[in-house]
Amino acid sequence: MERSSDLHHFALSGKDNSGSIAKYIVTCGDKSVETTTSTAVLSDFGVGKQTAYVVTYDAEGNASKQTKVSFTVKDATPPEQVTGLAVPVADSKYKATLSWNPGVDNSGKVAQYEIQLDDGKILKSGKTMLNVSKLSVGEHPCKVRAIDKDKNVGKWSDAQTFTVKDMTAPGNVSIKAKVEENSLLLIWKTPKDNVGVTGYILKYGVNLEHTEILAANELSFRIDGIAKGSYQYRIVAVDAAGNES
């Protein structure tokens, strides 16, 4: 007997003292089929265990005892496409929570969800949410699909894209000062940043009244014409998102 969630093929055979079988009647629940061949087909069964009964008839209309046939119909219908995938907001620790509506399946319950993040590795969740961490700065596409207990896989949801902003400031700038007659040479090294330093803001003067905006590759600055006395300077690194050290 071949079977699927839609069609069930019964291979039939029987013997009679007259030498010929006139027909078979196969019944399963409220479905019944009569055939004069060795094959019977029933359709539109529900998922789960089923029991069919076969009765054989000879040419005189004599009926055999019922033959019981038990079988299990496996679920071959995938869950529906997942909806409601929300656009998350990443926090300052570069973490985010993906969430979506509960999946719909003919068996009544979705067993698991698969989530694809950044068109890469497939992540799994038994809930309608997934926490993701260690997100890089930039855009992150994501989509989700449902899987039922019989491993039928639904279609991917409509994709969503969320943006992770850079919220990490560059490290402090290590700066050295060298007095040369009536000038002051300031020299520093590029500090660490998760994305990269894009420039520097240098303030200097008796009361830090002067400001210079410097490019990322400018790692020194000379202040000429300084007079004797107390002099101040302060420098901060800036990244592309405007975070300052």
From TrEMBL:
CDD domains: FN3 (cd00063). It comes from the Bacteria. PROSITE patterns: FN3. Residues 169-245 form the Fibronectin type-III domain. This is Fibronectin type III domain-containing protein.
